[in-house]
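Researcher: First entry.
Model:
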Amino acid sequence: MNKLTLVTILILFTLNSFCQEKGNFFISTEPSSANIELSEFPDVRKKSPATFNDYKAIRYLLKISKRNYQTIDTIVECLSNKTVNYHFQMTPKTGSANIYSSPTGAEVYINQQKVGYTPMVDFPISCGSNVITLVSSEYGTWQQTYVVDEEKPVIVTKDFTRADDLNNMAYSIPQISSYESETAQLSDESDETPGGGFGSVGFYTMIGTTGFEGATYRYGADLFNYLRLWGESNKKSDVSGIGFEGILPMDLGGAALFLKGGVVSRSFVPEDSFSKTSINFVTLGAGVSIKPSKHFQIFGEFEFGFVDDEENEETIELWEQKYNSFSAGSAWVGIRVAF
């Protein structure tokens, strides 16, 4: 088995591990508008409910967080060619309340559950909306709804001896204006980092130099930006070729880095001949992509071609006779449109 065959088998085996099937999963929470993060993609952030499309069929570490609720760290599984639905019930964090009345000794109810008598200091209470009711045996019942925040205690004071309701409600609700401002700011932010993902099917064109006179053009299609199939031509030097390659991308949101490897077969007409001769290369390379969105990318890359010198000695000589050199390196720039 020659070296070219061994390298080809290695690349195909590697590509097979890269080209995993994809699936979708849907995340919902109670309450909604929770922040969702995937540990494998720190730049991708969404708010529930959220759908994650075209992800590798593997398990993902999921983090769900929301102010005043306990953070959820869990694992979800993405199944091949399926959409899996996950729902999470979030548990409120615990805040505190200071509850006073005049006269003292009023019964205290929180959400219709009796919890004690006034005064109560640093009493644990669930974050969120709570109905606090005070019952005085002499003056009757008083009730108010409070929004409890995890960072500041609720202060409730009720003077049953005063008839003026406005002056009578001398309680303090936590200062939530900063929280509301933060929530508004978060809602204005994009749910997902711009440019995340690559789309399902892409079409691209490239221009590059392959070591002989004139520009070489490539044009082809890819699947999930993992597997490319393309053709190339250089009219000035009368060289054409076809090839396929696998891509290993590292998605950074608005940009991506990638490694690549594949096989290309180039055909040319030797000097003093009327029939074409082909030479096969195993290629390895890398590149960078600028991604305004997953549907459009601008990229640049380089590659090196490897050939079995012993088996192709005669073909290499014919190549050098016509083109005066035999270059193993090439550089390319191109654009990609994906759907």
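Researcher: Second entry.
Model:
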Amino acid sequence: MVDHVKAYAQAVISGEIVAGEYIILACKRHMEDLERSKLAPFNYYFDVEEANARIDFTEILPNPETGEPVELLSYQKWIIGSIFGWKRKDNGNRRFKRALITKARRNGKTFLVSTMGTNEFFLCETPKRNRKIVFASNALKQARIGFEYMKDQIRTLTNGSKAMKKRVKILDAEIKDLYSGSTAYPISSDTSTGDGFAATVAIIDEWHESQDLKMYNLLKSGQIALKNSLLAIISTAGLNPNVPMYREVQMLKKVLRKERSMDDYFIAIYEQDDVEKEAELPETWIKSNPILEHPEIGETVMESLKMDLIAAKEQRNLNALYVKNFNVWRQVSEESFISIDDWNACAVDEAPDLVGREVYIGLDMSRSDDLTAASWIYPLDDEARRYYVDSHSFVATKGGLDQKISRDKIDYREMADRGYCTITDKETGIINQQQVIDYIKHRIKSQKLKVKGILYDPHAISLVLNELEEYPLIEVGQGAKRLSPPAKDFRLCVYDKRIIHTDNPLLTIAVNNAIVKEFNDLIRIDKDKNREKIDPIAAMITAHYEAMHYYTDEFDWNSYYESEEFTL
């Protein structure tokens, strides 16, 4: 019996099929799990017959453009066979209750979405009745695309069968299987009927557009009591790394690197490994565009990709091209202060031992109704001359916390629960500066820190200064001449991986939002939109004004005092 899933995995691992790092790791995971399945402690096995039955069924479904049956490509067989072929040993239900499939646009994403729904509609045996297949997206128009494909597939199946016509009822916004009581329908993130969902299979399309976890949590919570459910995400990458999908992708990359375990999650991340280099190497584009495997469609897609690359270069709009055509996450602005890849490369799983260390603290005091940040730089005194950085924010609630969460696209309640911020306790909703003072003092005391300096923007900070006068206080003006050197040096430290962090989400959001304004060989950080928050990285740059000199053997203070940077 042919094992299409194993054949694809072996071809990828051997290099016969060109693939990116995370598809190679996913294929190795499959092969290793086949061996693990022979052992009792591993509660999963691969059912080749079931996988092939799902692949065979999919190949009788029509191509949405030609109406002819589709001959699946090897990567499509791998995805469909993996999702439906892996099962639990204890009850025979599906192994993968969650799946993430991400690839570049124009790679048959919608067809794959629809076939998963059609497969489940007719072939699923648990539960035997009242299955629900839900197509979800941020916008109903997008959710309907996969749903309409499924309608077209079922119409084709019913055209040659009177029995099938009697069994299935196709409505504008719903498909009903009168035999099993099963239904399929599309929804959007603003649906008003979401509380009643208990989807056997829920498919989220283009999740990169979702700013929060509302829809994801709604669908997931509806599946808690279901024994054989699947929540599948199929999407391209996006231009905003401050969204749930980006964080999900980073977590799943850790799974594939064996840094954490999630045996019930199927992962297929088709992306370029080094997009800036590989954009000039068409032979590598199959890493993010697996449809290039197709002899005819692949040729058409390849020509389109080449023309898009030429146009993007002329328009100086490469970031959008990298995202949509090569499926890598980038910031929307070409002027980003630090790229997400460089920042992620500095992330570590655990903070070093900070007790007793020297520290520089930067303060960015906001208007009374906005965000305040205290950022911390700890020199690690190691051979690499590294710094560990962290931040804590203070959130005003004037106008209502819910409104602020909605406007900023940040769940401050969750951030507070996880210890990354403090929400003001003032009834007026303005920042309580005493909370800022108490937090700083408590952290210094609990970690027994040696404060090298509390560096501050003089704006709205008088009360804080009075309460912190036992520590060295250093005023840092916010002009470009003053802040350009620490901003440039901090960025260089990131490039050299001399900055490490534990992926503090509010700090990471600020880094992703920060753009650079350049003039007269100076830089300063800024943001594109008023609602975007950069306070934690702004406070960090303020702290780095002094921290950047920590590893300097000799600092010429006389020259500094004589320079234009020094002011009284």
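Model: Note on the second entry: DSSP finds 21 helices and 19 strands in the chain.
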